[in-house]
Structure formats: structure tokens, C-alpha cells
Sequence to fold (370 residues):
Amino acid sequence: MRVRGRLTWGRRARAGAVLTALLAGVVPSAVALVPGAATAGAAAGTPVCQVRDDRLREISGMVATDDGYVVINDGADDEARRRIFFLNQRCAVVRTVSFPSRPRDTEDLAIGRDGTIWVADIGDNDRSRPTVGVWRLAPGAKQPVLHRMSYPDRPHDAEALLLDASGRPLIVTKGGSGTVFLYAPATALRPDATTPLTALGQVTLPSTTTSNPFSFLGRGVITGAANAPDGRRVVLRSYADAFEYDVPDGDVVRALTTGTPRTTPLPDEPQGESITYSRDGRSLLTVSESADQPAGTRSTILRYPATATTATSAAPTESVDPVASTAVRPAAGQVGGGGGRTWPLAVGAGTLLVLIGLAGVLRWRHTARR
Fold:
């Protein structure tokens, strides 16, 4: 969901929630005090193609296909934007698929090995939805089918979707403090019922210093995810970085909850919420929203080298192409964890005052527009 430019209700809710967490001490000090300087040596992605269709200014999810790309907007008020968009390799829209009923807040896409498209209708800025959903678009189907789900504990805002080895959808919450949570359906999905979700664990993100429009806030949230085509890796992304995990045995949850990721900086993307792998698995592809950017700005798909796998366990039985080896910056220490970092109390107090001031500015801007 967009957070730049004028403060819409959703943006105020998200900024307010993060600020409240920070002021209440929920966010670990190691996250709150990470400097905002650009990561040394971080390079921007290589442009692939530019999305010029005006309906696609709030792209929140993307997957790559053999013919091009599939993208969605986040919860758009305009009916023309509430569609699944199929693009060719030059980013031109070649067809769209409508939803049979209005989605709430579509935030990510995943693609199964059989070509099934999964649309994650899981955004919840206000954390008030009694149910979330995934839309399943089978190959050749004219419309997607909705499957509703409910959290076992409380509502969560989420913007990232993965698939496990069996094709089951996995929700990754957005977080805000550098820790995110994993949920999956407890039973088989049914289109005519609400399926309970079960909690599967949590992921602690590495801390980084990658420059992005939202400073430390942008480095502590997850805005998208993707499975590699061969199933051996998964990636989570924030507004600042991509975190790749090896999945040598097909267990995505164990990889995320116990593995150590390799970090690829995605510096200064305007509103980076989408990520996917190229079809050969050699590249990471990202795209940002272009709403609230300078006039004439278009969303551009960017390419980054995927990181070299370090998996040594048995590979999947199917034959896959080798993944190209690339040099990347190693992941930094875990959020809130050791590394010998200590922070003077004066710095903490100063940060608290800055946050209080920022909260006041946001409130003033909202009040001034009433």
C-alpha cells in the first residue's frame, strides 16, 4: 500500500501504527537506531522494461512467466485497476482478468509450478479484517476463485505470499520491528468456507543500512516475497533489501525460521513492494509503485543478480539449470542481536524526541487537510 505523498487514511494508519510501536518500546532499539546512510557499494538494478499503462501506478505484486509478467495493484478504488494484468516481455498489457467480486487489498502474487496464479488479498493497514483471502486463478480459467482464511490470534497486516513444496500458500506478515510471522491454512482450502490459519513461526530479519525513502522503517518490514522456479530458494523483500534463503530440502518454513539469508541491497527504489525471480532463476526482478512520484514517472521492472546458493543438502529430484554464481554483500547481524552494538542513552532519548516530533507533524498534516 502506498505511503508516500499525501497522507491517505491507510498511510496514516500504517505510519501511526509503526510510530506507536516504536514509542511503546515494541521495536528493538537496534532497529530504531540503525543509521540511514546508503549501503556502501550498493548498485541500482538494471532496467528491463517500463510499464506505461496508467492503470498500473500502484503495482504491489509481480510474477514472471514464460511470456512476460503478471502484476496486480494494491487495493485500488478504480474498478479498472482491480484486475489481474498480464504483460508481455516489453511490459505492455496484453490481457486482463477481472475479479468476480471486489477484493479488499491485493498485495502480492505467487505462481505454482502448474502455472496457477495466486493473488494474496491480505493487506490490512488497520488490522481490523475478520478474514483475509487468496484468489486462485487456474491455467485457462476465466476468473479467479476466492478462498477466505482467518488468523488464529489477531488480525495482521501482510503483503507477502509464498508457496510451500505442496503448493500451499504461506502468508508472511509485514511486521515493522524486524520480526515477521508465518501463517498457513490449517486444512485444505475450500471456496465456500473460511479456513483457519495456523502459526508456523517467526523470521528475524538482518539489519542493514541500505538507503530507502523510509529510512529505518523501510528496512524493518516485508513488502513482498517469491519462490525460485526450481524451489531451491525463496526471497523476502523490504523497501530496502532482498533476503534470499536456501531451501535444500523443500521445507520453506524451516528455511525461513532457521536459515541465514544472503542480502541483496535494493537501494532507493521509490516504493518497492514487488519481487520475483526470472524464469531461469538467475535474477531477481523488482518493480515499484509510481503513484505520488514526479509527473511522468513510470514503474520500471529492475533486474538484480540472484545470489549464489550455498545449499549442500540433497537437491530436488527434478532436473534444473545451475544458478549463476554472483558476489553479494553478506547479511548483516540479526536485528536486536549481539554484534557488540551498544547505544548511549542520550542517543535513544534523542531518537524518541524525533519520533514524537514526526508523529506531531503527521497529525498536523492530517488536521490541516480537513
About this structure: The chain has a mean pLDDT of 80. The chain has five helices and 20 strands. The radius of gyration is 20 Å.
